[in-house]
Amino acid sequence: MMQHLKKTSGASFSTDFTKALDKNGDGKITFKEYLVAYYRTATAKEIEMMLDWVKPEAVAEPVKEALTAEQVEEFTAIFNLYDKNRDGKLDLEEVKDAIKGCGFETDEAEDMIEEHDADKNGTFNFDEFTAMISE
């Protein structure tokens, strides 16, 4: 009999507890709902401050360091080596030649261009090229 009462009262407590904290009625207790219940005298601004303390920072783009003169010179030489038609861009065939020489499969060239072609013109200009190889 006592075990039955413990089980019943425990389930009831759990349900009542959830209902008391679950302000939006979705069946889940969010951390914000918990904070509001626990810190009853806290203002909305104080609750938001507490949430900010535990929220992960927004993932920021890594700060790109400026290239040294030496790096620019090296990247220019590499770019010019593969820019066979000297149009200032690396097209798909030129990128295939470049990555083939680096041991990559040529079918990866399209993926590389798609991923790093900022202006979406199907080629790499020098800036896109340097951004890609300096990652």
UniProtKB/TrEMBL annotation:
Coiled coil: none
GO cellular component: myosin II complex
Database matches in InterPro entries: CALM/Myosin/TropC-like, EF-hand-dom_pair, EF_Hand_1_Ca_BS, EF_hand_dom
Every EF-hand domain range: 19-44, 70-105
Source taxonomy: Eukaryota, Viridiplantae, Chlorophyta, core chlorophytes, Chlorodendrophyceae
Gene Ontology terms, MF aspect: calcium ion binding
Source species of the chain: Tetraselmis chuii
Keyword Repeat: yes
Biological process per Gene Ontology, one example term: cell division
Top-level taxon in the UniProt lineage: Eukaryota
Pfam families: EF-hand_5, EF-hand_7
Name assigned to this protein: Caltractin
Functional summary from the UniProt entry: This calcium-binding protein is found in the basal body complexes (the functional homolog of the centrosome in animal cell). In mitotic cells it is specifically associated with the poles of the mitotic spindles at the sites of the duplicated basal body complexes.
Keywords: Calcium, Cell cycle, Cell division, Mitosis, Repeat
